[in-house]
Amino acid sequence: MKRIILGIALMALVSVIPVSAAARVDVSINIGLPPPIVVAAPPALVVLPGTYIYVDPYIEAELFFWNGWWWRLWDGRWYRSHYYDRGWAYHRSVPRFYYDVDPRWRAHYQHRHWYGQRWDYRIMPYSQVQRNWRSWEKNRYWENKQRTWGVQGYQPRSYQERQDLRKQRQQQYNQRPDVRQHQPQRPQRQQQYQPQRQEPRLQGQPRGQESDMRQHRPQRREPQRKQQERREQRYQGERPRSQPEGRPEGGQRGHGR
Known about the structure:
By secondary structure, the chain is of the alpha+beta class. 34% of the residues lie in helices and 12% in strands. It contains eight helices and nine strands. A four-stranded antiparallel sheet has the order 3-4-5-6, with no helix packed on it. The protein is elongated and about 105 Å long. Mean pLDDT is 78; it is low at 13-29 and 242-257.
């Protein structure tokens, strides 16, 4: 009796588990989470020219701070968290800011040049960026003529140039081996064999005469209007010509007395 009561209690417990909790368990099993980032001190950030994306040049991981979140690309998948060292959650799509990130930004940082122009970048503690990122973006803080992201003689790209550059980086991103391994493969279409249609052969008809039958098929009847036109043309061609006045039939002229 005790076993029966225990079994009923377990079944009732399983039935009340939320579906969302089961889904979270499934995601955690199928998609692994990135390892924690171990740093001795909070990140020191630099804003990338032309954007409001912040990076730490001394962290090797692909880690970005944008729009109040920390974003991380790991093993071809994206994760985000409110903390730079923990609390990662899987993000299904590529964040829209990523195609604005210059792939060579680390080399630009090391040489202190941004496409041929001197880059006097400003290193900021994470706490300062965390407090001000929203107001900076709202007021276009880094676009000020006195700042221009610290790039001397900075010339912003046009809208069309930015869009073309984003498409180019998107194509490069999709070709990455770590990203391609998670992309669903499209099934290849197989061409189905379609047998040629053969004309029906009458019983007792020798082979090879099907083509003759096609040549002697009755032609389709013309529309009634065309038939009427043909009759009128034929009728006009058969009418006798009228004789000129004053000339009798037979071609002889009359002799006057």
